[in-house]
TrEMBL record:
<feature type="transmembrane region" description="Helical">
    <location>
        <begin position="46"/>
        <end position="63"/>
    </location>
</feature>
<keyword id="KW-0378">Hydrolase</keyword>
<keyword id="KW-0812">Transmembrane</keyword>
<keyword id="KW-0573">Peptidoglycan synthesis</keyword>
<comment type="function">
    <text>Catalyzes the dephosphorylation of undecaprenyl diphosphate (UPP). Confers resistance to bacitracin.</text>
</comment>
<dbReference type="GO" id="GO:0050380">
    <property type="term" value="F:undecaprenyl-diphosphatase activity"/>
</dbReference>
<feature type="transmembrane region" description="Helical">
    <location>
        <begin position="83"/>
        <end position="102"/>
    </location>
</feature>
<dbReference type="InterPro" id="IPR003824">
    <property type="entry name" value="UppP"/>
</dbReference>
<dbReference type="GO" id="GO:0071555">
    <property type="term" value="P:cell wall organization"/>
</dbReference>
<keyword id="KW-0046">Antibiotic resistance</keyword>
<keyword id="KW-1003">Cell membrane</keyword>
<keyword id="KW-0472">Membrane</keyword>
<dbReference type="GO" id="GO:0046677">
    <property type="term" value="P:response to antibiotic"/>
</dbReference>
<feature type="transmembrane region" description="Helical">
    <location>
        <begin position="122"/>
        <end position="140"/>
    </location>
</feature>
<keyword id="KW-0133">Cell shape</keyword>
<feature type="transmembrane region" description="Helical">
    <location>
        <begin position="259"/>
        <end position="276"/>
    </location>
</feature>
<keyword id="KW-0997">Cell inner membrane</keyword>
Length: 277
């Protein structure tokens, strides 16, 4: 893999990650077109590093509004942190349960099974893209400018929906969680803020998991790790810059009633993935 490959993937990741169109599906398709195996540990690690860049973009972009929403007072912080903890906990429990179900039902309980094996399945990715596309369109039709706030019940439902984004590449996390929030009557701004707050909490755990998988699976030496990390750090920087641009785009379309267009795009891209599979 050359630095040009990393740069292309970083730009795709940065633009698509923070839009509800599934960055993973776009990056995986790009990897296949370049001749790479998306399920290989070094590729999943690169993808996670690109996610890290967009995570920092999220923090930079939302910090001002989060400071007002989450850090305005100690009581408010405890309440909002509780919502995030509940949603993330449910995501983890259901996500792991779903992984075990997939392992035992579809892979006969194979001891060597890893959820990353699903990432290169184009038909599964296309189905996930189509599903989230329909979800986005329906939530847009349902949206009447709600002004609802978060509570523990709503946070739990959002966390449960988010769990399905973990094993199925193409099922956009931001698209699913924001759409679910709109269905539950939460205001667009609160839905967006909460969705990306969850992303910031999840990303470090995913990074640690993929780094462990990279070392454990490949039995890499320190020199080999350095060889992979430096290009990934460059990609992280580019994905950070592209991510900031994407967030401005997302906020504008969400606030001006163009949310459904992302759903249409997901449906079209689902067809593209099927055609190229």
């Amino acid at each position: 893999m050359t630095l040009l490959h990393v740069l292309i993937l970083a730009i795709i990741q940065g633009l698509a990650e923070l839009l509800p169109v599934s960055s993973s599906a776009h990056v995986i398709l790009a990897e296949k077109l370049m001749g790479f195996d998306p399920s290989a540990p070094e590729m999943t690690f690169l993808l996670v590093m690109l996610h890290t860049g967009t995570m920092f973009a999220v923090i930079a972009y939302f910090w001002k509004s989060w400071r007002q929403t989450y850090f305005s007072s100690w009581e408010n912080f405890k309440q909002q942190a509780g919502f995030i903890i509940v949603a993330t906990g449910i995501t983890g429990i259901l996500g792991l349960t779903l992984q075990e179900i997939i392992k035992h039902v579809f892979f006969d309980g194979a001891s060597h099974f890893e959820i990353e094996q699903l990432f290169s399945n184009s038909k599964l990715m296309a189905a996930a893209l189509a599903t989230v596309g329909v979800l986005i369109i329906l939530s847009s039709r349902f949206d009447r400018g709600q002004t609802g706030e978060l509570n523990f019940r709503r946070a739990s439902i959002i966390g449960a929906v988010q769990a399905f984004c973990l094993p199925f590449r193409g099922f956009s996390r931001s698209g699913a969680t924001i759409s679910t929030s709109i269905f539950l009557g939460i205001s667009r701004q609160k839905a967006e803020e909460f969705s990306f707050a969850l992303a910031v909490v999840l990303t470090p755990a995913v990074i640690v998991k993929e780094f462990y998988r990279l070392i454990h699976t490949q039995n890499l030496q320190h020199t080999q790790i350095g060889h992979l990390i430096w290009p990934s750090l460059a990609g992280m920087l580019f994905s950070f810059m592209a991510g900031l641009a994407a967030l401005k785009w997302l906020s504008a379309w969400l606030e001006h009633g163009r949310w459904y267009l992302f759903g249409i795009y997901c449906l079209v891209f689902s067809g593209v993935v099927l055609a190229l599979s």
